[in-house]
Amino acid sequence: EEEITELCNEASTLASQIKTSFLHLNNLRLLCELCEEQNEKVQFHAMKETYQVLEMIIREKPQYHAAFVYKKADKTKESTKKAKVDKDADEQISEFLSLKYTDFLEILLFNHIGNKESSFQIPALKMIMRFLLLEHQVSVKALNKIKDPSVLLPVFKSTIRFIQAIISTILQGSDPKKSLILMSYPSLLEVIKKFFHNYDDLRFYMLQSIVKLCKQRKNTTDKEVTDKFVLNVFQLMHRMPTPDEVESFYVHDPEKLPLLVSPPKKKVESFADLYQSGQKRKRKEVQAENTEEAVKQLANVFKVENHSEAFQNAWRALLRLPLSPLVYKQVLLDMPQHILPYFPNPELLGDFFKDAYKMGGMSSVLALQGLFVLVSKYNLEYKDFYRDLYALLEPSIFLVKYSGKFFELCRLFFASSYLPEYLCAAFCKRLIRLGLKAPPPAYLPVLALVHNIIASHPQLLALLHRPPKLSTGGVLMVKEREPKLYNQGADPFDMEEPDPAKSNAQQSSLWELKALREHYYPVISRFCKTFEKPINEHKDLYEIKDFLHQTYESEFQTQITKKRKGKAVPITFESSGKLFSAEEHTESFPTWDFN
């Protein structure tokens, strides 16, 4: 304990000496070493002191602003002895500061932010983000009087590299074995989102970094590392806000960078420039075009349409990677409301949903939801949508935990009154037929769904009551029975036909409702009565979610607590608590004492 206190005091002393005089600048080397001590208390104390020293130098020593630019650490520089004859004192100090600044950033990034074994991810992230801001402010301040926007290119590129390094460390760390899973660190994830979701410029560069990292990850063969990376990317982009206007900036504030927002007009070429040699002039034009294009790209961060494009590119890059079942389902859940509306070209995801449908299970259901949104809102042409939906109507659909979600989506799929009659008839018939074998609690939403479909499509009322046909073979138009097969109950509906158009559902009837009317489960029996009454298309439709929580236990509780009409049936006598009542004791055993 004494040694720990001693090391903490040493860190404070070293920092205090640097703040007092630059003669002690070499103390930065010792502070960086203390930041890598094994004891966590010493580590944190040294980190805090080093951060304060570097922040003070950045703020108060503008002559060294060139030293505070993020770059990857070059370990060969420190060991290489260069001649100091040609360098003045300021250059040597600047070089030393640059080296130590880079070392400290590497410690924060790789020892803490990207390391699951560290306890200081959040403080390290806050320090890094503060350095990102200070580094940019100092660099821009030094160039505030220059009117050429191309001068800002190195500053912007340095900031973007810094952000890319932060995002790369968060998502994959320096060592795949020690990299963290963001889902397991909710507090850290919250702080990350506070920066990279709330600030438009940080979010824009983060999305660009994700595209770049996903392209690199495509060549990785390690499945475990890829799964971890994909999960982290999804957590980082999950429910990301997509504002209509770009107005919140952390680093690149447009008010402080008017040269980029509205660059000056191109100067007219002088007479001398026009008469330069062809090759020389062409080379200058190419350089000017490249610089102009680079400046335009930097200004993309201030345009809303570029943010939407970056959002789309990041999601598409992620979806090209192999997704784990957990991420796949969550992406499919988020797609209709939180992702597709913000895509400039959402129809590009049609193939993704088609592939997801082939996976089966819950993925198929959610994929159909996404396809329905693309078909109904974005004019995607997908002729087999309802045929694929029809194929999911199997007895097993009632036995899975997502059956309620499936029937809720079915209500959405059949909300339109423009769907053809044969299609609605086939779905109603198949759903009702499945009810003959389905578990009662899971089947209740189906009855509500069929009722809603019939209410929305009045032409289906013929399925509920199909009177005997008039015979046209005789002299008189009289009601006669159909041939024998009709009397014997033959149903033209083909349950095995995968195509709803060929199932002959329109020639059938919902005779199964009559059978379900005698069902042992009281709720189903009662609900089937509603089909015997006139169905009003203008009446409010049933909410499928109201029928999802029915279970055997809930029905049992309903039955035993239900108030019944008339006198209660006596099932036991009223106990007196004694062998004989007071009356029996007096009449039959007056002299006996039972106490």
Automatic annotation (TrEMBL):
UniProt domain CCAAT-binding factor: residue ranges: 364-527
InterPro entries: CCAAT-binding_factor (IPR005612), Noc4 (IPR027193)
GO BP: any one term: ribosome biogenesis
GO cellular component: Noc4p-Nop14p complex; small-subunit processome
Any Pfam family matching the protein: CBF
UniProt similarity note: Belongs to the CBF/MAK21 family.
Protein name (record): CCAAT-binding factor domain-containing protein
Protein source organism: Vannella robusta
Lineage, top ranks: Eukaryota, Amoebozoa, Discosea, Flabellinia, Vannellidae
